[in-house]
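User: Hi! I'm a student and our assignment asks us to look at how structure tokens line up with a sequence. Could you show me two examples?

Assistant: Happy to help. In each example below, the sequence comes first and the structure tokens follow. Example one:
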Amino acid sequence: MSSNIDADSLPLVPGALAGVAAWVLGYVFTYLLAGTDIQQSNLNQIIEFTGGESATYELVGWVFYNAHMVSITYTNLGPFAPPANFIGGEDGFTALLYVIPPALLIAAGLAISRYQGATETNDGAIAGALVVPGYLIVSIAGTFLFEIVVENATGGPDLIPAIFLAGLVYPVVFGAIGGAIGGATAEDDSSGL
């Protein structure tokens, strides 16, 4: 099982763009599933009251990072800190949100594998893992984009797990799985028939 992919022909830019697209779509789907509830939540009302504006898009980002197993961290809130994870549990959002990032990354990996023309599992996995750079960059940017600062208190996705879990582990594993599926299910046209 040797790789037939030439390192010079790897679709780096399309792979990165597919990673960005998977991340953005994941956020959009999370917003569609949880945005209304977040907008009406007590936490958003408190933030709006103390900060002057709604924090719906940031709080949806928190839930999106939770779907990657990334906790939310707080400073200067003491015993009044909200939960570190908003998915599942008695008052949490549906556990279906955990499926969104893997499903989109598998689809992105599959798409890049097909774009590359991979006809073997290994080649497909390599091509599918190319979603990592794009997904990593927006995962890092999102930690800063979704940080909420109200007076001297802050909250947002924990940076190190966001980089490691959301930015690296999820796209490597699920992008490669999607790519491997693409390579394994592709028809090999090299027979010359």
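Example two works the same way, sequence first and then tokens:
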Amino acid sequence: MASVPDIVLADGRVLPARLLEVRASRSGGPGGQNVNKVATKVDVRLDLEAASDIFGPEESARIRSGLCRRIDALGRLRVVAVEHRTRGANLEAAVARMTTLLNLALARRRARVPTRPSRAYHRRRLAGKRRRGQLKKQRAATFDDDG
């Protein structure tokens, strides 16, 4: 099997390959005899408990809450790749996907600042409603008392 690369995060921190557990198995789907004979499906798992000294408690909590559906019962982040026909290509895809997931989970979201509509907006809105009302009044049929 191809050697497992270290994961380099966006902020420059490196998760060593020893924290990753890689398993290969037979993949389903089309591919002819290749599917029946070769173990190309790659399952990569990152032990979050072992990586806690790199992340720290706050970031570990953020990863666990943001990626909770991808974490197994043993507390490992799991990524599976089956889209390529070779084990090496699937390993690269799985590691790239795990890097992206970790970068997204660790990115700090900017707090939303609630805003209010301006006074000028309210004036414009009400003036537009008045114009529309006047237009509809002009369109209305007028009835004569004679008729």
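Here is something you could point out in your write-up. The beta strands are 7-8, 14-15, 20-25, 41-47, 76-81.
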